[in-house]
Amino acid sequence: MKRSKIFVLAFSFLLGTSALFAQNRPVAKSISAEPGQDKTIELSWEFPAKTQPKILGVQIFRRPRPYAAVQDLDGDIPIAELDAAKKSYSDTLSANGSYFYAVIAVTQKGPYKIIIPGMNATTTGARPKVAAVQEEIPPATSREEAPRINEDALTESQKELLYADKKMRKAPLPYPGTLLGFDDGKAKMSAQAKRSAAELGSKKKRENVPIKSPYFFEEDMFSPDGGDEYTLFETLRAGLAPKKYAQSVELLQDFLSVHRNKETTERAQFYLGQSHYFCKDYKSAIRCFLEVQDAFPELSKQWIDSSLDLLSIE
């Protein structure tokens, strides 16, 4: 009986310690990116009061696409390196567009590279404010202000543009056919022009359908100690995280061919749907998302809607 109590106490202590460690990781949280003045983005974040390992500095990363996994940092050079005490940064941009940011802590062991969207990486693109340019419109010239001209120097067609007092009209007279109602207003378009317009409309429609970015559940952001969660983590690291989507389909199908616990199976099924989605197999993606819509109703709806939109323009 005493041994059982000791085991329970020890297990509880370990759980509490691991939870405390998770809270004290050197990972930024509450990241925010808001447009400032003069093409700037005002970035802010927070770190836990005490972290293990200790934070010695901060690196700021920026790119035009979201940071969804730690592999997205590969090859990127930080746009700024700050002191550990800094909690904000003003980024001055040289070009317009939407930008995404990630804040990485630097410790004694080097950069603590981890990406958790919504915590240390922005999920919504920040766009700098652009000052409105007021177009200067010259004042209208009245008929009295119009200069007199030498009629003898004009051609017959130019003379038709004069008022009776020999001052130039501001605009040519309307086409007689339009004035008298002869023009039916129906412009005629050639077959080639119609085909070009149709192709342009199709391209325009395709460009307006946004492609989603890979989504990872928080449970799969850290490497677990073992079990199904660890196997799923390694599966994602080999396929979906590095964006090897065709390989990810095969790996996740192999993973799901073995009986797993309910929560891990649901997440793996959702990742399989994403892998099909990025392989442009939208029908298979929709089937996967439908299977887990009870577990992830909002997420599944977003991905199903996107799949249907993309399927409709194929």
Please describe what this structure looks like.
- The chain is α+β, with helices and mostly antiparallel strands.
- It is 37% helix and 13% strand.
- The chain has 9 helices and 7 strands, in the order αβββββββαααααααα.
- It has helices spanning 2-23, 156-159, 176-180, 191-207, 227-238, 245-256, 262-278, 282-291, 297-312; strands at residues 29-35, 40-46, 55-63, 80-83, 88-92, 100-107, 110-111.
- It has a 4-stranded antiparallel β-sheet, with no helix packed on it. Strands 1-2-5 form a 3-stranded antiparallel β-sheet, with no helix packed on it.
- Helix 5 (227-238) runs antiparallel to helix 6, helix 7 runs antiparallel to helix 8 and helix 8 (282-291) runs antiparallel to helix 9.
- The longest helix is centred in the N-terminal third of the chain and has 22 residues, at 2-23.
- The relative contact order is 0.08.
Poorly predicted regions are 1-22, 140-146, 168-187
N→C terminal distance = 67 Å
Spell out the helices and strands N to C: HEEEEEEEHHHHHHHH
Helical stretch count?
A: 9
Strand order, main sheet: write it out.
Answer: 4-3-6-7
Helix content: 25-40%
Give me the secondary-structure category.
alpha+beta
Shape: flat
How much of the sequence lies in strands comes to: 5-15%
Q: Determine the mean pLDDT.
A: 78
Number of strands: 7
Q: Calculate Rg over CA atoms.
A: 32 Å
The major pleated sheet works out as:
4 strands, antiparallel
